[in-house]
Amino acid sequence: MINPELKPKVTELLDKMVLRSKHNIGIWDGSFPDYYDRRQKKWYMNGYWTEAFWPGIMWWLYLYSRDPFLRDTAEYMSKRIAAEKIDLKDHDLGFLFNCSCVLGYTLTGSSEFKEVAIKAADRLSRRFNPRGNFIPAHGDVEHGDRRGYTIIDTIMNLRLLFWAHRMTGEQCFYDVGLKTAETILHANVRNDGSTYQVIWFDPDSGKIEGPGVHQGYNADSCWSRGQAWGIYGFSWLYRQTGDERFKEAAVRLANFFLRHLPEDKIAYYDLLDPRIPNVERDSSASSIAVAGLLILASSGKGLERYKWFVQAEELLTALVKNSSDHLDSTVEGGLLPHGCYFLSKDRGVDSELGFGDYYLVEALLRYYMFGILD
Ligand code: GLY
Ligand code: GLY
User: Fold this and answer.
1) What are phi and psi of 332, to 5 degrees?
2) 316, 185, 295: which is closest to 239 by C-alpha?
3) What is the tens place of the pLDDT at every residue in 224-282?
4) Residue 153 beta carbon below 6 angstroms from any ligand 2 atom
5) Selection from 165, 154, 178 nearest residue 95 by Cα
6) Ligand 2 mutation target, pool 51, 96, 215, 346, most atoms within 8 A of CB
């Protein structure tokens, strides 16, 4: 521990999060929250790819608190994800099954969770296009105009494949995960350590057609959440494979991200938006990045470990203060304020986002259990 004042603040915040989450379970009444819009003071529900972040939060908070109510809720919501999402034609099978059934299996040993998560991994791996070594993000992979559409976000979904490889020994999961990761490294990462969110491929020849724009400012800018998915994704890939190329990528992306953070450490929605500082922030980018930096720190050796741990602590200190003040001053809503889901669609602006909340909780647990948690 480098900053002795942070640890008690982390446990204090986790206690507050347990209380807020138990309160929220009553409000949601069995449906899946997507985000809380602070401007409208309203929960938006059922966001298809975001739904497992809430059972995920329950699993992590159960690990912290050992509260059986949180465990029961996590179990119930994870079973619903298993039943309702297994047929989804989407790369986000990774987020959906990692944060529900894989976490559930890890904490409870349930064979039901294990089997359905392996099935989800199998379906994800079947999206792979071997001509271009990529996984299309959305839709049917045989027909339609999205067969060549890829986004950096997919890097997070590869984790399900490596997990399935560990569980089954089937090489195909590892190969699809590794090849897709190599493609993302080659296609989405720019020389200066920034990233493209979207890359279009010709699905028949497998050749890259070029970058596109989805959530960021434009095709040449750097959408901060995409950059954060990359930091977390490459850090985790390095941990998983020991491949130095992924560590080098994680470090380059992290350096770019940290260089473009404002003083209060809450990322702008797009790191290269020319309108900065008069643009929205996305706190979820900072919470995803800090969880990734803690993985990078725990995978490093000696001074390298120290360096990334200190960077993570600095970011986490800012997020802990934001979230703690927010939970003290509000009675409704999520856990981390000032997220921005999709700026150009005016969706979830200045909101508490399921994924922002989830990665803050994960980061708090990674910090709290540093050296213990894999
Ligand atoms: N994966 C979609 C997003 O981050 O909004
Ligand atoms: N924001 C949804 C997606 O395109 O992944």
Assistant:
1) -125, 160
2) 295
3) 999 999 999 999 999 999 999 999 999 999 999 999 999 999 999 999 999 999 999 99
4) yes
5) 154
6) 215
